[in-house]
Amino acid sequence: MKQTNISIFIPHIGCPHRCSFCDQRSISGAAHAPSPQEVTELLDGQAQHLADIGMTAEIAFFGGSFTAIPRGYMTSLLECASAAVERFPGVYTGIRCSTRPDCIDGEVIALLKSCGMTAVELGAQSMSDEVLSANERGHTAEDVRRAASLISESGISLGLQMMTGLYRDSEDAVRLTCREFIGMKPDTVRIYPTVILKDTRLGELFQRGEYRSFGFEQTVDLCAELLREFTTAGIKVIRMGLHASQEVERDMLGGVYHPAFREIVESRIFLNDMKEKLLPMERGGYTIFTDRRNISRAVGQKRCNISALRELGYEVDIKPLDGAYIEVR
Questions:
Q1: Does residue 145 lie within any of the structural domains?
Q2: Would you call 152 exposed, middle or buried from its count of C-beta atoms within 10 A (0-12, 13-18, 19+)?
Q3: DSSP symbol at 14
């Protein structure tokens, strides 16, 4: 049975800091803090639809720092979610939230567990204290380590979120974040290339010419490296890039955004692996076989991988072969 999220966006009220990149109105597309009644109505309304199409879902509180919102409001939302899990046990499989590393402690963990929280994602963004400070995160890398340890020890599933191309970021700092994430053994990771939005500090720095994020190709190559590292470590990357959003497209000034960003990154991995197979071979024409579910990734958007290999002197035809990854003949 397929699994999805029913996302409930909580706006900026839960954040004690305004980070350099943050404009939650654009990112989440929501500025309204939902009432408990609205949450209940949403979950009741979605339950039958999910059952009809044979899907299960986690109830996900995203958009702000969930554990930093007023305690009474947070508890009321958790009670609604917990009640929905009880009413629709075949549909709702758990509750997840995203929050800041410095808004997690033993008391919060105990409260979340008592309300049936199954997963907590920490918006770590970077494990470089220099990058965290430059982007006004208000927490340190050690705060991430401490919070991650508390979550994992409690039995709640741990998720970590990182960004690439922040102010004063570097490829080395991104690789450091990747290594530290792997060391914390999260169940899931999200990777978000920085999008520079209007009405943010990054936007101001960008408009003054004091900041440029990583370029698109650089980011694709770097994220391909990250995806491979996390996958090899057995960590599931559940998101790459912001969700497609008219608000983001309207308000972005720069950075890296594409509605099919993950597909582009996966295609780059295929290109790199095909090059590794082909480069020791003589230039010429070859057929590359891969499982049919990989065909679009191997070919690339607008046949970009075919074109890239042609520029290297290889004319390739990509054909399906069940169970194959890359076989060259």
A1: yes
A2: middle
A3: G
CATH at residue 216: 3.20.20.70
Instruction: Evaluate whether residue 185 is within a structural domain.
Output: yes
Other residues' Cβ atoms within 10 Å of the Cβ of residue 169:
23
Buried b or exposed e, range 97-108, using 16+ CB within 10 angstroms: bbbbbbbbeeeb
Question: What token pair was written down for 328?
Answer: 């060259």
Q: Dump pLDDT digits (tens) for 210-244.
A: 999 999 999 999 999 999 999 999 999 999 999 88
- Integer-rounded Cα Rg, in Å, for the chain is 21
pLDDT (tens digit, 9 = 90+) per residue, 143-197?
999 999 999 999 999 999 999 999 999 999 999 999 999 999 999 999 999 999 9
Could you tell me if 204 and 284 lie in one domain? no
Q: Assign 12 to helix, strand or coil.
A: helix
Rounded to 5°, angle at Cα 163 from 157 and 165: 165
Is there a domain that residue 273 lies in? Answer: no
Ordered DSSP codes for 60-78: EEESS-GGGS-HHHHHHHH
- 267 within some domain: no
What is d(CA 208, CA 163) in angstroms, rounded to the nearest whole number?
A: 22
pTM, two decimal places: 0.92
Both tokens of 57, joined, read 């879902």
Euclidean distance between CA atoms 37 and 58, whole angstroms: 19
Give the strand pairing for 327-328 and 284-290.
antiparallel
